[in-house]
Amino acid sequence: MTASLEVSGLAFAYPDGHQALFGVDFSLARGERVALLGPNGAGKTTLVLHLNGILTAGAGTVTVAGLPVDKRNMAEVRRRVGIVFQDPDDQLFMPTVREDVAFGPAAAGLKGPELEERVQRALERVGMAEFKDRPPHHLSFGQRRRVAVATVLAMEPEILVLDEPSSNLDPASRRELADILRSLDVTVLMVTHDLPYALELCPRSLILSEGVIAADGPTGELLSDEELMRAHRLELPFGFDPRSVPAAPARP
Amino acid sequence: MGAGHAHKLYRHGHSPVHGLPPHTKLAAVFAFVVVVVSTPREAMWAFGLYAVLLGVVAYVARVPAAFLLRRLLIEVPFVAFAVLMPFVAEGERVEVLGLSLSVNGLWGAWNVLAKGTLGVAASVLLAATTELRELLLGLQRLRLPPLLVQIASFMIRYGDVITDEMRRMRIARESRGFEARGVRHWGVLAKSAGALFIRSYERGERVHLAMLSRGYAGSMPVIDEVTASRAQWSYALALPGAALAVCLLGWTL
Amino acid sequence: MHVPDGFINAPTSAATGVIAAGAVAVSLRGARRELDERTAPLAGLVAAFIFAVQMLNFPVAAGTSGHLLGGALAAILVGPYTGVLCVSVVLLMQGILFADGGLTALGVNITNMGIVTVVVAYALFRGLVKVLPRTRRSVTAASFVAALVSVPAAALAFTLMYAVGGTTDVSIGKVATAMVGVHVLIGIGEAVITALTVGAVIAVRPDLVHGARGLEQKLKLRVNGELVDAPGAEPAPVAARTSRRTLWITGLVTSLVLAGFVSFYASADPDGLEKVASDHGIDKQAEEHAVADSPLADYGVKDVDDARLSGGLAGVIGVGVTVVAGTGVFWAVRRRRTADASPTAVEGSSAEQPARENV
What we know:
The structure holds three protein chains of three kinds.
Chain A: E1 5-13, E2 19-28, E3 33-37, H1 44-51, E4 59-64, E5 67-68, H2 74-80, E6 81-84, H3 88-91, H4 97-107, H5 112-125, H6 141-153, E7 159-163, H7 171-183, E8 187-192, H8 195-201, E9 204-209, E10 212-218, H9 219-224, H10 226-231
Parallel strand pairs in A: 3-8, 3-9, 6-7, 7-8
Antiparallel strand pairs in A: 1-2, 1-4, 4-5, 9-10
Chain B: H1 16-19, H2 22-37, H3 44-60, H4 65-71, H5 76-88, E1 93-96, E2 99-102, H6 103-129, H7 132-141, H8 146-174, H9 186-213, H10 230-252
Antiparallel strand pairs in B: 1-2
Helix pairs in contact in B: 2-6, 2-7, 2-10, 3-6, 3-10, 5-6, 7-8, 8-9
Chain C: H1 10-34, H2 40-54, E1 58-59, E2 65-66, H3 71-78, H4 80-98, H5 106-131, H6 136-165, H7 172-204, E3 220-223, E4 226-229, H8 236-268, H9 272-287, H10 313-340, H11 343-358
Antiparallel strand pairs in C: 1-2, 3-4
Helix pairs in contact in C: 1-4, 1-5, 1-8, 1-10, 2-3, 2-4, 3-4, 3-5, 3-6, 3-7, 4-5, 5-6, 6-7, 6-8
């Protein structure tokens, strides 16, 4: 079975000469839920932008379900890799929720009842079906983030990549989003600072630090390794003990 | 241009004119202006009839006269020019109230004023009854090349971003005690332009990346097909049709 | 400088419409080389910027109105082809939304404010960048000069069009003096804004400045401790050569057509010269009257009458030709584009087909 995502030797520098990635290697199996942890400025967002070819690797390769990410496969790669950006306001730009969710599939050529059904299904999966005809900027922040997830789900991606999904959410919205993510049967790569959230949702974690993968293993083990955590400026919330939480169940 | 789908010139409503497909309205306005411009300037009564036609459209669209007149103020620089024309133009002269005016200049002023005003009024009516996004869709339907439509839609999106960033930078400037007064401060304002440009770009870039990630490849996907029925076309084209009849009369009489 | 409906006569409007449509068609082809995913929104931003600066109008006595033009900024930031497209989009939207500039005068406006400014500014800019040392400071300096010259150039082009097809009887000397005079001043403002903006962008995001391509150094990447050469960003020299050649051809064609205009005018109005003589008499007489008070009166040296073609069926035919020619060019470009575009685009346009045939 081919891996959902394979990244090898990925290096990248911005045009001003600042190098952000120094040879990143990892691979995700189909259906896995993995957290990508790392301090600010570790290159997490830069890495995410490589996964669907928005940034082009300076060296190394990215492969999505066997397809190398390059100019030729770009449309297909972008359909298979769904990225939910950190700020839902960047992601939602159409006048109504329905049109926003329809944007991706319509760009892929879907229309009529087929398109309508795709939109309906995506909105139901995030519990936002009754907000279909509302303008996105009238929704609460948590609702907007759920709509942002729906816009990506509507494209039926192979991999869902979420950039800081729990940021700025109140505890109830945070839990609702976790329930939604758990109910999905796609490969998930979750970029986050929220370590308890990673532990709750992802059996496996990667630590990206100074442009390379510094650690790769079961989330509980990584979070319990105090020396590793300190070395990469990762801190658990006060009073939180990763050993007291049962590890997230791996999917069958 | 709030939120990219409504703009200051737009007047929300549900009139028959609002409901027409945007491309029929665009075609009608273009045709109307072409007809108006081709009318001989000597046929003064024809311009009166055109104004009546626009008045009928405004009535059907339920656009109040005050709104329309306020929007016509955009014309002021041209009016100033037109008023000057009889004084500076050459040719045969007539005495009016003790002033010597050029006959040619008077005709020229009338020509620019009448045709310009009718053109502006038609555009104002179009903008008042059509949302920005619809206008773009209309242009796309009228086969404007997709690249141009794309630049136009980014432009409208950035209109919002720029005004927003401008407001923030002004607040930041003023909270540090700066106030633009007179020529001496133009330097500071000019320097802000560069910073404004970068800030606006980086905000808009994130939206664009999100669009690319969802398979955007240069043209807005069509989510709701807008098709115009024969009745809608004939309804929209009634305006330039009537104007054409007036114009032909103007040539023959 | 926005020309309203009815200000320039129909044949001239039609001819400039053809020029503008041709230039836009050429630019559409050229822009595909200049624009990639990252610069497409930049083109929109440049357009929005131009839109904003053009909204600040100063009334000009014998022209229409004066304002910053933005053509130089567009050419330098996004390249000449995309620059022409940006300005054209701005003028189209201004015409439709704000009724600023007549819809039938769109050709005149695009030719003046889009094509002339962009071609003049970009030619000057490239020339200067070639001569000056290869630094970022030179790029900024070249932008300043290019913007400074582009604005009076557009004013001159306007005057020329006015001479060919103005519908009013204001002497060409007055128009030229007033237009060029005011626009030299505006040019200074334009130069400052352009240089500052280009300078600011080049300092932070040099990758975004089209005119600064080729200044970038080759990147070295450190991969797992070893240094590796990054692949070149793009084959810049090849693109530059072709774009320069096409630019020259476009410039040549534009000047040929403009020259053709002048001769058209001269031949279409054979009694123009006789007219000048008699007008001089009228001019003297006029000076004793109200015109003597006008600050512009001193400048009325040479009088050129309008081509007197504004009346007659020629008007209707001329405008009709513009519309047909313009549509034809766009249509041809569309066809060509859809032919080599992605299958979804083809699907889209074929879906539109029956709807149009219904009509």
